[in-house]
Each structure stands twice: as structure tokens, then as C-alpha cells.
Amino acid sequence: MVETARGAVKPLSNRKSRAGQGFAPGGPGRADCRASTPAIGPAVTIALLMFLTTVAAAALIAVLLYRPLRRQRAVRDVLDAADALEARLRTARAEIEAVAGDEGRDPVGEAMREMLRQRLWLRDHGRRASLGQLSEVRASIDAARGRIEQQLVQIEQARLN
Q1: How many distinct structural domains can be found in the chain?
Q2: What number is the average pLDDT over the span 46-69?
Q3: Are 99 and 158 in contact (CB under 8 A)?
Q4: How confident is the model at residue 151 (pLDDT cuts 50, 70, 90)?
Q5: I need a labelling partner for 86 at 20 to 30 A (CA). Which of 10, 59, 151, 160 fits?
Q6: Can you give the residue range of the structural domain that contains 119?
């Protein structure tokens, strides 16, 4: 024992080690710092796996059902645009004939033939066509309709002058 101003101090060799005491189990000198969580029973684990499997299956079914709907919508949009263009072409033909008379020249005929080619392409390739191809056909129909509208505006301006 050693005497100090505070009192007697025992030598270190005589002290008992407290290593491993007061910590989570792990043996002397080892501390287990993992958070203690309650164990999940096998019934809860199975229920969770079944739920996750059901959600994954529902997502897969939704994706598989949505893809054909997009294709059907794209084909329907192309057909609707073609119908609208055809109706506009018929109106344009009537307006042109009213202004220019029936001179034997049919400026709308080429546009009508192009429309027929696109409809035949859609009939022959529409089921295998990609969404990009269907979108291109739709864009070309819309562009043709825009050109017809511009020509009709020019005809109307010529008629007024």
C-alpha cells in the first residue's frame, strides 16, 4: 500500500479486473454493441415474404397488361388521325373543285393515295410495329394534315382576293 495525501492507494496488481462486466454478453474483454431487437417469428417472416411476393406478382401483371394497352392506344391514335385527315382531304377536294372547277387535275389525289399506303402499311405491319414506328406514322399523318390546312388557307386567301 502506498500512502498519498488523499489516503492509501492499493497497488494495481491487487485490484480485481472488471473487464467484461456491465456490458452485453460476449465474454471477458469483449463488448457486444449490437442493438437488441426482438426476434421475428417464422410466421411473421412467412407472411412478409408472401406479401412481398404478391406485390411483385401484381406489379408484373400490371406491366404485362399495360404494354398491349399502349400499343392498342397508339394504333387507335394512328387510325383516328388517318380518319381525320381523310375527312379533311375530302373537304379540301370539294373546296378546291368549288374554286377551280373540275379541270381534271386532282391535287388531293396524291394525299389520298399516301393515306391509303399508310393504312395498308398499318394493316400489314401494325401488329409487329414498334411504338416508335407507330409514332412516326402518326407524325407523318399530322404533318400531312398541317400541309393541307396551309394549302386550304392559301386557297381561301386567293378566293377572297
Answers
A1: 1
A2: 87
A3: yes
A4: confident
A5: 160
A6: 71-160
